[in-house]
């Protein structure tokens, strides 16, 4: 090989090394989009304020939470811990040929995006670790109030370090709340509760009772009022259902339905509650004016 050619090539390579940072920046620029070129469409939750909540160690292992939120105009991801302890607002939807993105903004005006596949999936794509401001306020309003426990066997919805066994339907007092998430669904906020004996436990915030497709962690009013009569209460405790029961009595006995079909006719509004079993079979309960009138096994 010609010695002068070799020497010239080496020098050229050394000179190129000085320009590597500039070349990399130019290449990254090819993958960036000017924020002014991004058209964001408002959605039904535009303007809602929220915060990110701490995650349990087990939940952190369920996916790479550090590669979900990225800068609005490039592919740079933000570590999850960097998103904590700040307030954000929902801005809207950014649509491209390949993907749709949920756009958010922090209180300093910096914007981030989260990719999801279909616009129709947006409502189910809102991460469970997002805590909306109004949800936090609703949970805070429970402090000092009495609630009645339900599914204390659900370790992701209830836990205690006390040796006391909190039974179903036990009345407890809410003494505090705190944001925390340990699963991919349900509200990311917990109630700290105290039994009449002073034992402390924690139950996941419920929202409204009777949520279709999920079970109530607790009740906001007495689940077994004496006015229902001893015989009916015994049947509910045995998880039995009979015609003539109200919707709430059925919910307390066997839980919330997985689906509800609504039918409107000249006779009024009726509801068909559907419960799925382990073997994928379905059981149907027909209600008219909130009274159970028919059961189809």
Structure description:
Mean pLDDT is 87; it is low at 19-31. The chain is an alpha+beta fold and 297 residues long. The chain has eight helices and 17 strands. Helices cover 21% and strands 30% of the residues. It is globular. The chain starts with a helix and ends with a strand. The strands form three sheets. Strands 1, 2, 3, 4, 5, 6 and 7 form a seven-stranded antiparallel beta sheet that branches. Strands 9-12-11-10-8-13 form a six-stranded antiparallel beta sheet. Strands 14-15-16-17 form a four-stranded antiparallel beta sheet, with no helix packed on it.
Concise overview:
This protein is an alpha+beta fold.
Uncertain runs: 19-31
* Helicity level: 10-25%
Topology pattern, helix = H, strand = E: HHEEHEHEEEHEHEEEEEEHHEEEE
The counted number of beta strands is: 17
Strand content: 25-35%
Q: Mean pLDDT across all residues, rounded? A: 87
Rg result = 27 Å
Q: Describe the largest sheet.
A: 7 strands, antiparallel
Number of helices: 8
Oligomer: single chain
Measure the end-to-end span.
Answer: 88 Å
Structural class: alpha+beta
Describe the structure using short key phrases.
297 residues; alpha+beta; 7-stranded antiparallel beta sheet; 6-stranded antiparallel beta sheet
Write the layout of secondary structure elements.
Elements: H1 3-17, H2 20-30, E1 40-41, E2 49-52, H3 57-60, E3 69-71, H4 80-83, E4 88-95, E5 100-106, E6 111-116, H5 122-125, E7 130-132, H6 133-140, E8 146-149, E9 158-159, E10 171-179, E11 189-194, E12 200-204, E13 218-219, H7 230-237, H8 247-254, E14 259-265, E15 268-276, E16 282-288, E17 291-296
């Amino acid at each position: 090989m010609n010695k002068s050619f070799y020497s010239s090539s080496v020098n050229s390579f050394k000179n190129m090394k000085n320009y590597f940072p500039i070349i990399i920046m130019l290449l990254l620029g090819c993958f960036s989009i000017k924020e002014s070129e991004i058209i964001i469409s408002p959605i039904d939750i535009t303007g809602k304020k929220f915060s990110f909540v701490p995650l349990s160690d087990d939940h952190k292992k369920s996916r790479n939470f550090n590669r979900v939120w990225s800068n609005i105009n490039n592919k740079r991801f933000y570590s999850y811990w960097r998103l904590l302890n700040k307030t954000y607002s929902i801005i809207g939807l950014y649509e491209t040929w390949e993907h749709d993105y949920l756009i958010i903004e922090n209180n300093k005006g910096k914007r981030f995006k989260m990719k999801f596949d279909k616009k129709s999936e947006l409502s189910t794509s809102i991460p469970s670790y997002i805590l909306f401001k109004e949800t936090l306020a609703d949970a805070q309003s429970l402090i000092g109030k009495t609630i009645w426990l339900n599914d204390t066997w659900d370790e992701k919805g209830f836990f205690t370090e006390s040796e006391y066994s909190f039974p179903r339907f036990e009345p407890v007092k809410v003494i505090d709340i705190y944001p925390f998430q340990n699963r991919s669904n349900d509200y990311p906020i917990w109630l700290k509760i105290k039994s009449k004996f002073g034992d402390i436990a924690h139950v996941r915030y419920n929202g409204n009772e009777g949520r279709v497709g999920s079970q109530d962690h607790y009740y906001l009013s007495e689940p077994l009022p004496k006015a229902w009569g001893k015989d009916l209460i015994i049947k509910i405790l045995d998880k039995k259902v009979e015609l003539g029961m109200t919707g709430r009595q059925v919910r307390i006995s066997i839980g919330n339905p997985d689906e509800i079909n609504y039918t409107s006719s000249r006779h009024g509004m009726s509801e068909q509650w559907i419960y799925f079993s382990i073997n994928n079979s379905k059981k149907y309960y027909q209600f008219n004016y909130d009274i159970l009138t028919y059961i189809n096994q």
